[in-house]
Amino acid sequence: MRERVQPLDHLLGSQWNIHDPEFVRLVRPLQQEVKDRGLWACHLGPELGGRGYGQLKLALMNEKFGMSRFGPIVFGAQAPDTGNSEILAHYGTPEQKKLWLEPLLANDVVSCFAMTEPQGGADPLQIRSTAVRDGDDWVINGEKWFASEAATAAFYLMMVQTDAEAENPYRRMSIFIVPADTPGIEILRMYGFYGEPEDTHAHLRLTDVRVPAENMLGEPGDGFVVAQTRLGGGRMHHAMRTLAQATRAFEMMCERAVSRTTKGEQLAAKQMVQEKIADSWVQLRQFRLLILETAWLADQGNDWKAIRKNVSAVKATMPGVLHDIASRALQIHGSLGISHEMPFAEWVINSFHIGLADGPTEVHKVVVAREVLKAVEPAKEMFPDYLRHKETARARELYGA
């Protein structure tokens, strides 16, 4: 990773531009080496070309290859393709798997997940894009916002409204496989983030986009169920890669602290620097253990919904860990830390990005609180049963005191 993959961050642009001659020259040999070692696409089972290592081992792997922008794609575990491949693996027909999943797993193509819309943001119930049945086809109209890797994707997994009158609002949506070259798809504008080499998220307009009925994943109204197949794992994978990034910032911070001197002593001897290092180490360990526990739980039942509290806790913790550690590393590096020679400012900005992607931090904190409170019974009387005088009375009765 350090010697052969991390250098790619300084030589190549977007890691999703897989047809760039330099990508082919530099990345393809590394991918083949990973495949030869049996480490390719480890998030999937052997029947799909992976190793079936499960979430725990995948977390430990991401801790290493997440230190580079190109690490995930070298190992066949890059977003959004990992989540999209899981959807296709679970809900795709044999024909869909042959046509879309196999080339995606081989990294012969990249994909896009198009769910968010301009008016809805993090609320999927506000999706207004529609698909109307017309003979053997569905015709899609609407707009999509921040569609990831839309410009380079061979196909989109697109959530749209198929039954606006369904009594259960979570049965109104369906997901379709939409080839990127389908007539009627227009990229209005590409958006990027500070520190990214290229703009990778699109504002799409969909005008009479016609797709065959067999391109639906699952049954009509299954959109939310299908989407959860990718969102739980996707949030965990983001966290694993964020842990790697925060760890790298911590390592750089520590090296700077023992390398730089001021007023006759190392920065490492300054108590306020020591505080930053101690706080960062504690945050890293807490976050790492939270990820590993959640990954282990996922492996026990393979049911993301059953551990949604844990997944949301990971997602809500993630932005703050990266923000705090990258900010401290920047501060300890002084003027050099804020310069283009260092990645810290990009990582601070990225902490806000990951606090919004796959659901904002506020939403996930609400999920955690709701799940915790589901198991709590209210007090039977006006005053709680744990008042000290009540507990004392019960203790005396128990022991005859």
Strands, total number: 10
Number of helical runs? 11
CATH superfamily of the largest domain: Butyryl-CoA Dehydrogenase, subunit A, domain 3
Helix/strand/pairing category: alpha+beta
Largest sheet: 4 strands, mixed
The span between the termini is: 67 Å
Overall pLDDT level:
92
Q: What gyration radius follows from the Cα positions, in whole Å?
A: 24 Å
User: Order of helices and strands, N to C?
Assistant: HHHHHEEEEEEEEHEEHHHHH
User: CATH architecture of the largest domain, please?
Assistant: Up-down Bundle
CATH class term of the largest domain: Mainly Alpha
Oligomer: single chain
**Reading side by side through the largest sheet, how are the strands ordered?**
1-4-5-8
Describe the protein:
Residues 221-372 form the Acyl-CoA dehydrogenase/oxidase C-terminal domain. This is Acyl-CoA dehydrogenase FadE. Keywords: FAD, Flavoprotein, Oxidoreductase. Belongs to the acyl-CoA dehydrogenase family. This protein is α+β, with helices and mostly antiparallel strands and 401 residues long. The chain folds into three domains: 6-78, no CATH class; 111-217, Butyryl-CoA Dehydrogenase, subunit A, domain 2 (Beta Barrel), CATH 2.40.110; 225-374, Butyryl-CoA Dehydrogenase, subunit A, domain 3 (Up-down Bundle). Helices cover 46% and strands 15% of the residues. It contains eleven helices and ten strands. The strands form three sheets. The protein has a four-stranded mixed beta sheet. Strand 9 and strand 10 form a beta hairpin. Helix 2 (54-65) packs across helix 6 (223-259). The chain is globular, with a radius of gyration of 24 Å. The N and C termini lie far apart (67 Å). The mean pLDDT is 92.
